[in-house]
Amino acid sequence: MKIKSVLVGAALAAGVVAGSGVASAYDQVYVGNYGTLAGCQAEGSNIAAHPDWTEYRCDEIGPESFDLWLVAP
User: Between 20 and 27, whose confidence is greater?
Assistant: First the structure.
């Protein structure tokens, strides 16, 4: 899941460079799915900090299945 984290960080950085900011268009961004809550939380806490994306959320969508979302505060 590290590659997805890098891609999310790159997309956010590209939005800042472009001047519009990716975060302004959405309230949340899907990052990925994890087999455990601990794995989801660990990846969420490792996502590069960004002024508009300072929070994350892990939603349980089934047994041993958690979706990680970046959430605008």
Answer: 27
